[in-house]
Amino acid sequence: MGSDATLSTLFGPSDPPPVGELAGADDSPFFLVCDHAGNAVPAILEGLGLPQAERERHIAIDRGALAVAKNLAARLQAPLVYQRYSRLVIDCNRKPEAGDSIPAVSDATEVPANQGLDPAARQVRHDAILKPYHDRIRALLDARAEAGRPTLFVSVHSFTPELRARPLERPWDLGLCWGDDRRFNDLVLAALEEQATDLRLGRNEPYGVDMVNDYSIPVHAEGRGLPYVEFEMRQDHLEDAAAPERWAERLERALRLAAERFFKQEG
Q: Which of 17, 96, 214, 253 is most buried, most CB within 10 Å of its CB?
């Protein structure tokens, strides 16, 4: 199996660039990210030693999240930055020092290529994948701040209804997650409750924001004092062809109503 420990670069000619991006309109207050959008693996890592079926599971990618994020960005005319590489190569919503930044085991699946990685090998993945992703987000947010443009930070994720390692009930259709700042999350939650009484909404479910180990919300949103919302959509609700558009329409309505109320409150 290939090792990246001694490589000066992780990527070969067939590997895609790590950062995907859609431009938005200058007057949109929304800014979208999708940390676990893709499941690409650099060719030299030989699929991480995993069969394709494992690389299609939730451990490798937030299934359906990118399709919703792209539809939502188009509706909101908002910029979107997303990551093409699998969270099993390196998790772009974890700080590099987090224990599961490059997981050796994920939901009971051992990842052969991640066993016993030395610091140099970890640094290669960080420099090639995580760093350019967050550098791009940082640059775009800096530009918005310099231009005096308001920003509502929206993070799009999906979750599996079933875990192998911890068989717990996960009944929610949609979760909203926050850390220390609930300002915008609470308004989005209220808008969803008003508009979609059929939804089983999770509050910091199935996850909360880990302010110590998570990256995007703690660093880019909370770290800048930006109002934000993090969505966790149930993956088995995203499988049919019409689902991304249906979910994007639902989230757009809630986000626009919450934004109107937020800016009115903020004066």
A: 214
Amino acid at 127: D
Give the HSE-up count for residue 217: Cα atoms under 13 Å, Cβ half-sphere: 26
Note the helical H segments in the chain: 52-55, 65-76, 119-125, 131-146, 183-195, 243-266
Domains with residue ranges and CATH for the chain: 19-266 (3.40.630.40)
pLDDT in tens, 40-97: 999 999 999 999 999 999 999 999 999 999 999 999 999 999 999 999 999 999 999 9
Provide the edge-to-edge strand list for the sheet that holds 152-159: 19-22, 80-83, 30-34, 152-159, 228-234, 174-177, 201-203
The whole model's pTM is what?
A: 0.94
Q: Do the bridges between strand 174-177 and strand 228-234 make them parallel or antiparallel, or are there none, so unpaired?
A: antiparallel
